[in-house]
Amino acid sequence: PSSSMATLPDSLSAKFKGSFAYKTVKDRMPSILVKVIDVMARSYGKFKEDFGEEGLEDAKAVVGLLSGLRNEMQTDKPVLPLTDGRADVSLWNRYLEEVRTAQGSDPSWFTSAWLYVECYMYRRIQHALEASTVLKSYDPFRAQKEAGFLNSQSPILSLASYLQRATHDPSSLSQQDIRKLFNQLVQVNLWGNKCDLSISGGTENYQKQDPLEQLARLRHFILVDQTDQIWNRLNQPKPAKRVDLVVDNAGFELFSDLVLAELLLTAKLADVIHFHLKVMPWFVSDASRHDFMWTLDILRASNHAAMSHYGTLWHQRVKDGTWVLQEHPFWTCPHDYSRMEAVVPDLYADLATSHLVVFKGDLNYRKLTGDLKWPHTVPFRQALRGFLPSAVCTLRTLKADLVVGLEEGQAERTEREAEEGADWMVTGNWAVIQYCDQL
């Protein structure tokens, strides 16, 4: 791309004092780190029990490294190269060089792009764990993610029962029935994204109410709704039709992803579903392969018929390959998605074989649009800047001061009407369902 690249908006960044990015780097990110340090310090006894003296020494060393990281962040130190030998180190270090060149100075917490330094914080948590002997695969957020799921039992049960009742005889479902179900489950899935632990600084954020009962009331808060275009895309006939879900949070949201995936298969809107998961602990509540399989295990062991039914069925789907779990290190890199084709052509080529790629949640939205200060009326396609391996759509509740694809005057109207006023873009109360067709 030529001159249009030269005129791209600024990145959201903590260098803009008073912005949400500034508040995040100044307050939210350090408080998440403090919680990790706290969880680890409170678990010293457990580490010793599980791994002996070595586990205790490891944990203390990791806590020391994370305290140092917090200090680097709060004193705006330069971003450092990674040295832990994981597969993604060269991707990260090359990125650091590119940013240094573009910025003309060392990247740092309060001068560089918010997207970069926030991703970097989570990668540095893993970097600290990699320095250990027995805690390399420890997930400091796991207990929280599991609590999030266990505390959402009642909406999970009502959703499982609803799906089972609605689809118990798939052959009797009319197109109209399927479409109604699809619309409902897309919206449940969209609002499931409110349950995000990183936005609440890692404090409890669970789905408590019956998700289906809330839909009518929440309708008004969907700023852009292109569900019809997604439906039309899914209804195009195609042999061996693959749909990809780039997953966001574990807990209720992941369950709502599984329910949507199940409907796509039952209603023959897709033949195979690929789930893209994180390869390391990420943004507090993001789902890993472990979280995914743990969820299926808990469902299968449930004494509620609908939950155990799906737990058993979904284990079978993973086994027989109608559900495929993928973990590419690129999802836990700092690059926005317009760079994917150049940086990890293997992943881009893989997504190109999909009929539809569904991106869940706020971080995916930020990476799709480059986390730039776009005017709100810029079309979604333009904000993608050439990232279109296939048809793509995004289901996102707004948790960053960035949104594109709105009508003229819509943002101003929303701000006037929203009870949260000028903060309307960061509360998770408003949402978009946006679609972009392949060229």
Task: Show the helix and strand layout.
Layout: H1 3-6, H2 20-42, H3 44-74, H4 89-103, H5 114-130, H6 142-150, H7 153-167, H8 175-192, H9 215-218, E1 222-225, H10 227-234, E2 242-246, H11 252-266, E3 272-276, H12 289-300, H13 305-320, E4 323-326, H14 340-343, H15 345-351, E5 356-360, H16 361-369, H17 380-384, E6 391-397, H18 410-417, E7 431-436
Parallel strand pairs: 1-7, 2-3, 2-5, 3-4, 5-6
Antiparallel strand pairs: 6-7
Give the terminus-to-terminus CA distance.
16 Å
Q: What form results from the Cα inertia axes?
A: globular
What is the string of SSEs from the N terminus onward? HHHHHHHHHEHEHEHHEHHEHHEHE
The helix content, as a percent range, equals 40-55%
Strand order of the largest sheet: 1-7-6-5-2-3-4
Radius of gyration: 21 Å
Largest sheet: 7 strands, mixed
E-strand count: 7
Range of strand content: 5-15%
Helix count, DSSP H or I runs of 4 or more residues: 18
Which secondary-structure class do the elements indicate? alpha/beta
- Low-confidence sequence ranges: none
**Average pLDDT score:** 95
